[in-house]
Structure formats: C-alpha cells, structure tokens
Amino acid sequence: MMKYLLGCICSLLLLLPSGLSAQESAEDRPPVTRAFFLNNAFVVQSPGKVIDLGGVLIRDGLIQAVGKDLKAPADAKVLEADSMYIYAGFIDGLSNLGIPKPKEEERGNRGRGQREYNPSYERAGIQTERSVADMISPTDKSLSEMRAIGFTAAHVVPRGGMLPGQGAVILLDGDKAGKMVVSEGSSLFAQFQGASGVYPNTDMAIMSKFRELYTQARQHKTHGQNYAKNARGMSRPAQNEVLDAFGQSIDGQRAIFFAVDGIKEMYRAISLSKELGFPLALADVTMGQKAIADLKGSSASLFLTLDLPKAKEEGKKGEKEEETDKEKMMLEKQRAAAQQLHEEQAAMLNKAGLSFGFSTLNAKAKDIRPNLERMIKAGLTEDQALAALTTEPARMLGLSDIMGTVEKGKIANLVVTDQPYFAKGSNIRYVFVDGMPSEYEVKKKKKKKPGDPEAKVMAAGDWNLEIDVPMAEMASPTLTIVDEDGSLSGKLVSGMGTQEISDMSLDGDNLTFSYTTEGGGQTVTVSFDLTIDGNSLEGSMSAGSFGSFDVEGDREPKK
Amino acid sequence: MFKQSLMLFLLLAVSTLVGQVEKGSIHIKNGTVLTVTDGVLENTDVVIENGIITRIGKNLKAPSGAKTVDATGQFVMPGIIDAHSHIALDAVNEATHPITAEVRTGDVLDPLDVGIYRALAGGVTATHAMHGSANAIGGQCETIKLRYGTFNPNDLKMEGAPRTIKFALGENPMRVHGEGGGLMSRTRMGIEQVFRRGFSEAQQYLAAQEAYNKNKAANPSAVPPMYDRRLEALGDILKGDIIIHCHSYRADEILMLMNVCKDFGITKLVFQHVNEGFKVAPELAEFGAGASVFADWWAYKFEVYYSTAYNAAILTKNGVVTSINSDSGDYIRHLFHQAGKTQRYGKLTDNEALRLITLNPAIQLGIDDRVGSLEKGKDGDVAIFSAHPLSVYAIPQMTIVDGVVRFDIKEDNNDQRLAPDPEKVDMMMLNYDEDHRCMEGTGEALFHNH
After folding, report:
1. What SS3 class is residue A74?
2. Which homologous superfamily does the CATH classification assign to the domain defined by A461-555?
3. Rounded to whole angstroms, how far apart are CA atoms A275 and B170?
C-alpha cells in the first residue's frame, strides 16, 4: 500500500511541472487571427503550374483564394513573401512521425528467447485492431523536424511486429492528436518484422502467418454474414477484432501497406497481394527499377524511400592516397555502381511510366533535401520530384480533394521558400500546417568545425543517443558520463546490457572512448568519436568489421 | 478481336510472376557426352533449343540463332543436382515450434546470394533449398534452378517440381526445443511422438473438413473448420502430396520414422545424411526410401561417430536410391569430387558414381522426368568439364541452365555479386567461410550442426 502511494506521488510530481507550464504557455491562447496573406510570390499551384507574382489568402485553416491582384483583407496578417516561392505542403507516404518509440524497458519485457507453443496475437506482433491515431504524441520532435523541411502531412503507422495496426493520415502540427488526424484507418500496416523468440520469427513464418490470417479473416467474415442472416441453428462466430480488421481489405476498400526493406521483401509483398487479392501499397521501396514489369502488374501504390545509401565521403584531408590495388579498385567501381542504382531509382521508374510518392520511414530529416538533390542529379526532374512530394501521395492516399496543390478550398498546408525549393542554398521561410504558420529564420552559416580543440564544453550528464545501427537493441542507448575532477568515466545502457566505460577523453569539444565486447563469437572493439555542442552531440561509432555508424544525441535535462 | 487478344495478353502478362524465366538455345559440339542413362558418347553434339534438349548425336546442324560451344576434348554431363543445400536463402530455421510444417523456404529465396554463382562454378544447376533441422517437422523446401542474374526470387523456383518438407531426428530438435526451449521434446522417444501427434491432429482436421463438405449441401448452417495452415501441410503429407526429406543419423531412428510413416500410410520418404544408413540398407530398400549422404564427413557431434566412407556404395549395392549432397556453400562446388570418393571407397562404376550427383538426387526430388540425365526432351541443364568429372584434374568450364550460360570460366570476374554494399567496399570476396546453415537462427549457428 505504502509503495503504491509513493508511486502515485512520484508520478504526480513528474506530471506537475509540465502541467503548469502548459497552462501558462502562450500557445494555449487563441491566435489573434486565423487569416494570413502572402503576396507577390511565385505560387507553384501544382508541378509545372506557376502563377508569377500571385497571392494566397488563408482563412480558418483553408486556402480561401489564390491568384493575381488579390487584396489583403483588413483582418489578415500579411506575411513578407515578396519574390518567394509557395508550394503545396509535402506529404509523406509512410512513416512513424509523431509516434514515440516504446521505452527500452517495455521492449525488454517481451521475453527474449522464451519459447511458447502458441503466443498471443500481441506477443506475435499481430495487432491489426490498433489504430495509430491513439498513439500520436503532438510534442514528438520528429514532427517539427520534418515540418522544418516542408512536410505538412504524413501517413503514419504504428510501431511493432508484422501487423502493428492501422495507419492514419495526420497533419504535422497541432496541439491535440485528435485535431491532427485527417483520416483514420486509412491503411492496414504490415512489415517483415518477426517476433523475437516466438512464432512468427522469420520471414518465411511471417509469409505463412499472413496467408493464414487473411484466409481465416475471409472465413470469419463469411461466417459472420451468414450468422447475421440466419443465426438459428448455426454455431456462433467468436468475436475476433484482429480478423475483423482485414474486412475492408478483403472488400478491396483498404490497401495493405507493406514497408519493404529491399527488393526481396518487395517481391514477397507482391506475391502475397497477388495470391490473396488485396489492394497493395509498397513503402520504402528500393531498386524498383529491377522489378518494373512486376510492379506494374501488382498495381501497387508506390512510395520510394527518401533514405539513400550514404554518399562516399571525400577522402579526409591528409589521408588522400591513390588506390593502386587492382582488385580494390574493381570493388570500388562495383560499390559506386550499386550506389547509383539507389540514386537513379526515382528517375528510372518515372521513365518507365510508374508514378510514385516518397516515404520517410527510415530517412533522417537532415538527409532528405540532400537526397532529393542526388535523385535530381541522377535524372529526376524537379517537377517530378515535386509531384512525388505533393500531388502523387495525395492521390494515392485518396486525399486529392483536400491536399496536394495550392488551390482554393484545400487545407492550407504550404511551404514558402526564398528560392526554388530544389535550388542550392534555398531556405524555407514559412511552413503552414492547417492554416497556421511556422516561421524560419535564414540560418547564418557559421557552422563550427568539428573537433575544435579550443572549445569549452561539458560532457557530464545523461545523454540519450540515437545510433544508426541495424540492431534495435543498440539503436537508442543511454550514455551516462561522470566528471570527477576532469577525469571522465561512465556507462552505456542499451538493450544489450550495461557497459561500464573507464577511459573517456575530452579534447576541446571532441569526446572519444572505446570498450570491447563479445559479438558473433569474436571480440569487438567499439569506439565512439563524438563532438559535443551545447546539449547535443553527434559523431560516429565504429565496431570493428561490423562497420561504422552515425551517432546523434541530446543531453537529458536535469530533473 | 484484336482488342480481346490484347486484353488476354495483358492479363497473362500481369498474372504470371513466375514463368518469364529466361530460356536459351545452345549447340554444344563434339564433346564426350556422359548421358548417365545412355552411356558415354564420344565426339557427340548436344543441341538445346529454347531451354530443352532437342537432339543428341554426331555432326548435328546448329539451329539458327543458337550459341555454339566447342567442347572438343571436353566432357559434357548433366548439370549437378544437390539434394541438400541452404544457399540462396534469407532464412533457414523457423525454430520457434517443434512443428512448422506450413512455412516454406520458397518464400525466402535470395536470388542475390553470390553462393549461387559459386555453386554454378562447380557445375551445379539445381539445388534443394532446404529448411534447417531445428524442428522435428521443419518447413517445406523449394527445389530451385540456379538462374543467377535475376532479381526476382520467384524466378529461381523450378516450376512444377513436387513439394518437399524437412523433418529432423535426434540431437538438433531435442536440443533446440526440448533442452533449449522447454517444448517437445527432450528425448528421441519424444520426437517420435511429435510426429505421431502431428499426423493424428491432421487426420482429425481432414476428417472435420470432409464431414463439412459432405454436410454443407444438406445443412446451410454448417460451418467449416477454421483454416489452419499447419494442419493443411501435415494433411498434404498424409495425402501423398509432399515428399519427406528427413535429417537423420542413427539407424534406430531411421527405422522409427519408417514405422511411423507405415502407420500413417506415407510412402514418399528420403533420408538426409543417414550416416548409419549402411546398417539398415535392406530395410531402406524395402521401404523404397531414398538416402542422401555425405561422402566422408562425420564426427562433428556425438550421434555422428559411427560412420563409414563406404556408406554410399553399400546403400547403392543394396538397391537404395542414393545421392551425395553438400549441405554447405563450399562443398557444393566439389560435388564431383565427393562422388569420385565412392570409387576409392566402394569401387562404384563411373556411371554409378555420376548418378549420385545427377539422376539419383533428381529421383529423390521427383524431378527426374525433367533433369538428371542428358536425354532428348529434358531441360537444357548441362555442365562442361575440362576432363572426366570424376578425375581430380577436372575443372568446370561452363554451366548451362535452361540453355542459358550461367557460368563460363572464360568470363569469370573476381566479383560476381549482383548487389554489392553501396556504402562500403567489403572484402567478403577475400575471406568468406564455409556456410553451415542447418542450425542458423537457433542461436547455435557457430557450431557445425548438420
């Protein structure tokens, strides 16, 4: 009892400060006006359709007027937009934006390694009844990050196993989850993500389980319909909301969205759709140009990944050496060709007459504009890129009526830039979501050089790291650093356990440390090379033959 | 009319994920042809047209448009078939339940695996892409053709090949599920009960389906039994639609499984590894079970000590359809050497030895009407060697699948990967290791557990 009370008080204490500050913050007051006016801009209504020096009037969340010679109404706030470029807000075809990652402890609770004969639906990662709309966190920082590069709406899906639930299209700004949702239940989301330790663990079991569930859902639906018609004398169908959720797909009304990691998973999803007959959408597509006929045959909606393999870094200064080994040169050539395969996917699909949008599921906000630039360099035209960011996803998500272009009556989701969006050095100045603007200052280019030995930074504290490593257990560890009279030590806590680190060195703003661990039967030295800037850090982690991975992190605010 | 046929064409074009497999025409001239079913033919041509062998004879005319290969001084044999392999797979074990009969390796084929090319470089044209041996009843396997170059996993499937399934006896399923997982079974006795219980449940399932089908016309309120893919698969074994390929070592267990099969009316059975097969060769022959063995590989765990290099010869002489397999991404390139060992240990004839890696595995996979020998009407799957393939001096020169050259030693680049890592140059080409994947995914992959 005592324990319980204590727990309650603690959680109240945790809630208290944030509750207070929310009450007092300016955001909660109603806005002075919900009318905005942008004038004398290049209004890119849709790809290829531009009004030179036109205006856009926004009122109550909608685009009220678009055209030349518009006058600012008295109650509208006029925003500086002279010679700027106005685009429809971008739409992300599939991602987890605004859906927080489950905490490490919760993930750990899933009983790794424990075998069971018949795991529950939930344990098996089959949660089709869930809706992502119940999981949205309006304060999730991924929302503001994506908004800052022009995304205003996204088709978001739950995190989880092979069938984590139903997706929804949301707006990327808003104080309440309910107000952000544009359409709920717009998709059923599937991925080749096995359950740990229990069935279905591998892709082959996921394939089989998917077929079984779908076939059972059909059977369940028929049984339910027959029972509704004539219950007397018929055994009663059991309630099953997991199977019920397939109903709209069985009727051809709701696409099943597969996020695919690579061309093989893409073929697996196509096979399932073909065998079972449900409408298919593919997200995070790569190497699609190797499967053009099959993609056409599948009639799937396509969303290409905005994540590209990292461009090869130009040789670091001082270690620029001519490669002379013939075999290494040939391998390097192969690598470059493989890279190109990813960069030119969008252009090649376009050439083949396939239309597509983009998905950001595995892309980082900061990489997206450079990646679009690389795709354009590889042959995609700017209009095609814009279509893939606006009109195409709107069409494929069934929302062309309310978003995707700058036209009267549509939701006022807009991106305003000082130069054309795809031009080098162009800056985003405003992003409107649901008729309300976020304003962005032009960033002064004074990026500090990494590894500044003169810098004074503080390393001690709890750091939440994000490591771009393909193992979920290691992807978001906590790094605790203790500073005892200038001697740094700490520990790294991840899903793989706790790693004590004795020797850390801080040179200016450059923090380095390493430790050894056992992995795959060998001893691996893991070393971090990080640059601290205020309360954030970035850098890399290298783990022997496993490769090198990007690291980002933020300091946990002091409680 | 034109419109209609156009529609039909479009329909066909979109409705076939498999079936656009590349076929070729080749005229192989003046080789020593080892037909396997019709002896050795000197200075003979083999003509493949559109993927099928159309003629075998002397001084044949080349069909128009066919590629010509001069095999003077070389040996032409049917493409080698490996009845036990795990190459070209993205997953091998669904090790989460003692019975996972419903999963299929055909769903996780990996056409980008460079192991396919390496196997081609050893004269192999078809493999049996098997589920692993973690479960008493593992998944269904896929017979694949090594059509390296495609990105579509479905292109690898040998269209029309019979269904097969992996079973396993002994230490592997006991350890993974019994000792490691707290599930059935900890003992060899228990493994037998996994089979018997599974088949009994499948019988009940089939009976319930049959009852429903009989009943539904008269009773509109009848409800069919809930669809269960595991029981469907076990039921298909009972119906004789699936060939069992069972991982096995010990003679007592081999007899046990034959008894189980007899009790349930199952006749299609091939034993894999079968290191103690020589002890029960007459019983295997009487049952009509096949045996797919290693030439001389044993002592990698306790149940595999009692073994002999004469195993293949003893089985063959007792009338058991016997093959030699690789179960390895490395040995698969040396199957012709493995077959040659049976001449040192057991004095098999050239043709008997060649059958171990051609026609016999084809029989065990139920594809002997299509491949396994060089005959008119069979698939154009051919391996060409510099010397007699049972000679240690033989070097594979060219490997042809469906009339398409998939390996040519003259055009062999160092790096034959289809999808290299776009982010870094890796040195996997320089230090790849042997692939022993039977126990992959069970947390025990570091051991050599076949």
Report:
1. coil
2. Calycin beta-barrel core domain (2.40.128.20)
3. 37
The CATH code of domain A30-88+404-446 reads: 2.30.40.10
Q: What is the pLDDT of residues B13-36, one digit of tens each?
A: 444 444 478 999 999 999 999 999
Chain B residues in contact with A212 by the CB 8 A cut-off are 102, 227-229
Where do you find CATH 3.20.20.140 in chain A?
A: 90-102+120-311+334-402
pLDDT at position B68 is 97
Residues of B in contact with A312 (CB under 8 A): 423
- Cis omega (within 30 of 0) for bond into A200: yes
ipTM for the assembly: 0.93
Q: What's the distance, Cα to Cα, between the start and end of chain B in Å?
A: 59
H/E segment holding residue A552: strand A548-555
pLDDT in tens, A367-383: 999 999 999 999 999 99
B177 part of contact set with chain A, CB < 8 Å:
yes
Pairing mode of beta strands B124-129, B137-145: antiparallel
Please tell me the predicted confidence (pLDDT) of residue A451. 60
CA distance A268 to chain B (A): 7
Check pLDDT > 60 for residue A447: no
Q: What is the mean pLDDT of chain B?
A: 92
Give the pTM: 0.85
CB contact under 8 A, A204 and B446: no
Give the total number of structural domains in chain B: 1
The rounded Cα B267 to chain-centroid distance in angstroms is 19
**Weakest-pLDDT range from A133-142, B63-72, B268-277, B421-430:** B421-430
CA atoms within 13 A on the CB side of A266: 27
Min Cα separation B244/chain A (Å): 19
The residues in B 19-48 lying below 8 A from A, measured between CB atoms, are 20
- Residue B397 inside a domain? The answer is no
Between B139, B223, B420, which is nearest A338 by CB? B420
Contact (Cβ atoms closer than 8 angstroms) between residue A45 and residue A54: no
